[in-house]
Amino acid sequence: MKNKKLIFTAGFALFAMFFGAGNLIFPPTIGFQNGDKWFYAMLGFMVTGVCFPILGTLASAKAGGTIQNLCKPLGKHFPNIYGALITLSIGPLLAIPRTAATTHEMSVVPIFGNINPFITSIIFFSITLYFVLSPSGVIDKIGNILTPLLLVILLTMLVKSIVSPIGPAINTGLTENIKNGFVGGYQTMDALGSVVMAVVVVNGLKSHGITDKKELYKTCKGVGLVALVGLAIVYGGFVYIGSTAGTIASPDVSRVELLNLIAKNLLGNLGSIVLGLAVMLACLTTSIGLTATFGEFFSETFEGKVSYKTLVIICVAFSCIMSVLGVETIVAIAVPLLTIFYPMTLNLIIISFFDKYLNKGFYVGSLSFTLLWGIIEALETIKKPVTKILGERLGAMFVEISAVSNEFLKKFPLASTGFGWLIPAILLGIIGLFIYKSKKTESFETV
């Protein structure tokens, strides 16, 4: 394949854009919670945290690089609405602010003390803005400058954990380990981000002169493979590291505290500094990638009426304000939104590879079910705030409805693996396919 250096540069950049705040704090927690069953939890995490993000990037690239093309069978308006909700969720509402909040809590406070988080955010997003103002250079700047530094630090921690483990992995008593890892992968937001983030990779490759559609998609597959290998090694390693921390942390330890404890036990007094640098680089690369994605998506959606530069400035300004909420608060807000959108997004990624054989009816039937599935699952995640709002009597009714609904979902095949929606979604899709059989949907342009 031509231009192997570009493939590795873009692959490292894609890895770094995915590997941000959530990707650093969640894998150790998954390992810690599942203890000696960490390997099974890791398998589940790999599905939603590695495979689907890469598949989502390739699906979007195959369709032309935009979510509008990916959702083409669903008409004109749905792709824009769905894409906007996803881009806002992985952008200034949740994921981008989380990168700055994590940097403050894990990089700044341990080294410089408890300074105002707003100061951290201003500096952090000023650096982000510098990197994203020129969209054509985002891939090169991340892949050639930031990612190599990040990988050296992460691999140092992984090697140390293998040579000198913190302790033995203990039995935590947690069951459904594969599903725990599967659902835990939602928190990375990567599968959601992949379907809109592909535009940054595609445009980056185009800026290097790769414009032929077949060559572009072939190059994207090489880029995806590089990112997949990197993510699998780092994720697997950090899930393992978390499983060895059962003897040094209490069960109720926070994600941030757990990672700090791990770093100190592995690297001694330098642990906080090394971890802080890794967190800063990981969060910065993701912030840059997501901010560029926000600018690319909405400049395309608004058909150039609002410039890319104006959009990224708005994005970093809003993210700066949101970031002062702190990591745990932002994570708590993210959970219900992710629970709603993730099954539908995973389903969209899967069926997009079979678009030539499907029509609008299949898409509507299948995706509608997974949207409903996500809404029902989300009831469980919002029962505490909802019960406070509704009061004791109505709140108790809501909790009961939530419990019964989620218990019903557990009866579906594959529910224990996180894929309980898959078989019903296929069946409803087939029903929709025959209903709309006379209305064949134009398939994606195959590259």
From TrEMBL:
Molecular function per GO: L-isoleucine transmembrane transporter activity; L-leucine transmembrane transporter activity; L-valine transmembrane transporter activity
Keywords: Amino-acid transport, Cell membrane, Membrane, Transmembrane, Transmembrane helix, Transport
Keyword Cell membrane: yes
Cross-referenced InterPro entries: Brnchd-chn_aa_trnsp_Livcs (IPR004685)
GO cellular component, one term: plasma membrane
Keyword Iron: no
Regions that span the bilayer: 7-26, 38-59, 80-99, 111-133, 145-166, 186-205, 225-250, 270-294, 306-327, 333-354, 361-379, 418-436
Principal cellular location given in the protein's record: membrane
Subcellular location(s) per record: Cell membrane
Lipid bilayer topology: Multi-pass membrane protein
PANTHER family for this protein: BRANCHED-CHAIN AMINO ACID PERMEASE BRNQ (PTHR30588:SF0), BRANCHED-CHAIN AMINO ACID TRANSPORT SYSTEM 2 CARRIER PROTEIN (PTHR30588)
Cross-referenced NCBIfam families: livcs
Role of this protein: Component of the transport system for branched-chain amino acids.
Name the UniProt record assigns to this protein: Branched-chain amino acid transport system carrier protein
Species for this entry: Citroniella saccharovorans
